[in-house]
Request: fold
Amino acid sequence: MPSLYFPNPALLQNLPLCRAAYSNRTAWILAAISWLAYQRLPGEGELSLDQVVKQITQAAKQNRNSQIRELVLQYQEAEKSPHCQLLNELEQAGFQFLQGFDSNCGTQAFLAELKAADDQQPMLILAFRGTETRAIEDIRTDAKVKLQDAPGGGRVHPGFYEAFASVQAEIQEALDHHKSCPFYITGHSLGGALAVVATRYLNHPKSAATYTFGGPRVADERFFADFCTPVYRVVNGADAVARLPFGEWFTLILALIRLIPLNGTFKIAEWLRNAIAGYTHTGDSIYLSDASNTLPNADGISYGDLIVMHDPEFVWRTRLTLTRFLRGGFQAFVSDHDISIYANKLHAHAQRCQAS
Reply:
């Protein structure tokens, strides 16, 4: 049965790992990895032995023998079946899971390596999990908007920085043991924001590139001044998250608010300016047009009308967004954020480019 995340294993072979330029196949692979990052890490959510003993003790005090048996069976089953869907999907596609990272503040990530084929180099990937709407810690992280001073200069979104800092030392320690192959960082939504922050603070001798999908703005211009690793920011259609917090139109919006002849509008504008002004994107933008998930053609490729545009001009981006809004309404701003759509579109585009 073909993999949901990697349906075309041939596209994983002979990747251009030694150059930092944007690659259609690399974009698809990292989008699929970012999608897979939403799966549970090995052991995530499972009870430790100490927790099991504690719950068994509590159940014994209340003579709940059935609960005791259930706890014992669950722990035994977890010990017998260490593999999870994340590991299975990675192994099937030729990746080796190296290490997972799970902080107390709700930050999850994993390090994996695409195994070398013949004389090819392996590919080292760090993937951050995106926002989980049921995870209160993720929501709190996203909600912290006012920029704060960042270590090393510039200003950064405090929630994103704190979330990354909670796993920074552990990730850096792991990277210090894997220095020999090109290193890529990726993530979707909140995961994309963490990937950008990680690009600045993690050290690796072969940093290749960072790919984000539907990632929000993270920091101000000064924060990105010393970036050496290329960042490729992929945005699908009318994805609203990729346009937050507000950027280029924000000054105009504040000016209009100040002109409203109501008491308190000036104070509101000043509060917004202090809280949000200064956010900007970094890197090269890659836009995926509004496209129908058509039936595969004779070559087995869907999304026949998809356009992938590199660093599109403002007029083209605006027209794309308005067209998507007229077609899908406000729901388009949400539905276009779906990481599975990113991955499937990029897979179709990679297939089309490989076939041409």
